[in-house]
TrEMBL record:
<keyword id="KW-0472">Membrane</keyword>
<keyword id="KW-0902">Two-component regulatory system</keyword>
<keyword id="KW-0418">Kinase</keyword>
<keyword id="KW-1133">Transmembrane helix</keyword>
<keyword id="KW-0808">Transferase</keyword>
<dbReference type="InterPro" id="IPR050640">
    <property type="entry name" value="Bact_2-comp_sensor_kinase"/>
</dbReference>
<feature type="transmembrane region" description="Helical">
    <location>
        <begin position="314"/>
        <end position="334"/>
    </location>
</feature>
<dbReference type="InterPro" id="IPR033479">
    <property type="entry name" value="dCache_1"/>
</dbReference>
<keyword id="KW-0067">ATP-binding</keyword>
<dbReference type="Pfam" id="PF06580">
    <property type="entry name" value="His_kinase"/>
</dbReference>
<dbReference type="InterPro" id="IPR010559">
    <property type="entry name" value="Sig_transdc_His_kin_internal"/>
</dbReference>
<protein>
    <submittedName>
        <fullName>Two-component sensor histidine kinase</fullName>
    </submittedName>
</protein>
<dbReference type="GO" id="GO:0016301">
    <property type="term" value="F:kinase activity"/>
</dbReference>
<dbReference type="InterPro" id="IPR003594">
    <property type="entry name" value="HATPase_dom"/>
</dbReference>
<keyword id="KW-0547">Nucleotide-binding</keyword>
<keyword id="KW-1003">Cell membrane</keyword>
<feature type="domain" description="Cache">
    <location>
        <begin position="48"/>
        <end position="296"/>
    </location>
</feature>
Amino acid sequence: MSRIMDVLRRYLKGKSIIRTMMFSFLTVNILLLLLLGLLSIRDSTASLTEELTQSSYKIMEQAARGLSFNLEEATRPLVILAGHYSVRALMNPGRQLDVEGRIQHERNLADVAFGVTSLQSFISDILILGENGYVNNLDGRITLRWNYPFTEQDWFRQAVSGTPNRGFIPLGLHNQDYYMEKYISKYDQPTLSIALPVNDHTRKPIGAVIANLDLNKVSGMFELTANQNNQSVFMIDSRQTIIVHKDAEAIGTRLAFKGIERIHAEESGSFITDIDGRETLVTFHPTTVKGWKMVSTIPMSVIRGQADSLKSNLFGFIYLCLLLNLLISIVITVRISRPFGRLLSALDKIGEESVYVISNHYKYRELNVIGGKFKELVLRIQTLVRQNYQSELARKDAELKTLQSQINPHFLFNTLQLLQTEIVCGSTEESNHLVLSLSSLLRYSMKQSEEMVELGREIQNVKDYLYILNKKYDNRIDIEYRIPDQEILKHRTIKLILQPIIENVVLHGFGENPVSARVRIGAVSVKKGILVAIRDNGKGMTRQQLRMLRAQLDDPDHRPEHIGLYNVNQRIRLKFGPDYGLRIRSKPGAFTAVYVVLPKV
């Protein structure tokens, strides 16, 4: 034992390879052990996070089912009241009721309201509001302010103008400021509402039946499903406003944290972000009401705290490994001192093909060789990364090649309605033209075997699309095609690049009610190839909007609002290079012009 200590003392005294190797070995192994510990803790935290995420999904799914069931139950009295003859009679603006008739109808409503109150615990109140100023609720207007302008409220206008989905119209969150102040349980308290319009015999809305939901009971349903991990389950609307929460003060506040846009961009999912300075696991799940999302938040400190027992055991194991590592490193250092030179010589032969010239940077030739081999490994990794990047570009190009502009279901539905109207009116020629244009659109968009088509066929597809679209607006869009040289129509281009531009022109330039609308489509030869110009006299864009849109089109990693223009620009650039693509000019209130620069192919 004393001999081993003398050898170690001799080698470790002063600067030597053995000392450097021993301490390096110890340092590396200590770091590896610490890394192992950190990875184990991280993996355990990740496992707990995944487990809690799945648990949150089940919790929110259960809550969403309960919410759906209760909303269906709450819809039943709305259907009964909206179809009740007394409700229609009291709301009918063209019919004046005598006192006796009005009293009888009020009694009928009171009988129905009694049944709703005794059976529906999910509903706090039902408002019966007519366009003619009629107002009633479950307690016979006792709690309501008589002079409140119900018909001027946004939520009432939404109730009489909306279209029921899943049996009702969601009105969202609003304050109950129409109750008398002495009813403190309701006055100026937030509520969620669902509604059904009341229609007269001509199907014209004459009022609405609105059910105010009891937020305390809705929130209580969420609290029953939450677990004991300091978890908070609540619900938000499409504007990131909290509409149901166990903390009443949180209702009506808007969420604002990094990544919140994912909640409505994706169906469901989870992510980790900072909320009020705390790292938090956020999980979200859809509900049956469009725009309403269930959200669960759990502080990551709670999740990491559950791994404390594992940490204490792991640290004890690491301490033991460090002690064993010290003893083993001493033995290995003594035994490896002689064959170390032979090992480095072998490594030197392996490194003869390296393209690097190794400098004497590490002070020892042996470590320089190891550094050279490491550089060679880095070079190979860089080559692999480059190859992977090229493969990724090829994959992205393949994805863009398969991109097809699909017929919007709403557009198809409107076209069929137009066709039905023309047939009913006996317009044989117009209906035949509609059928031919629609069939041409479908055949052109669904034929995936062609990637490149003649420019003439692409413009003909635009003509078919604009013909159908213009019929929807009673031919209020003035369309003109200016192509002085018909020969350029024989050149080939990428399929389906003009229709998305036309869709943006109509949607963003004219909106749903085009007036004095003009669209000019032209194609001319230019120095670079072919210039296709699409110009409208719509509302245009400000300089800031135009500058932002141009920046978004030039950013390959950005997904702007104008996804159609972005896809068209990227497809053209990937196919023909950065010299081609879209150019946009605009002036507020005057025009917007989109120029498509294409090569002559």
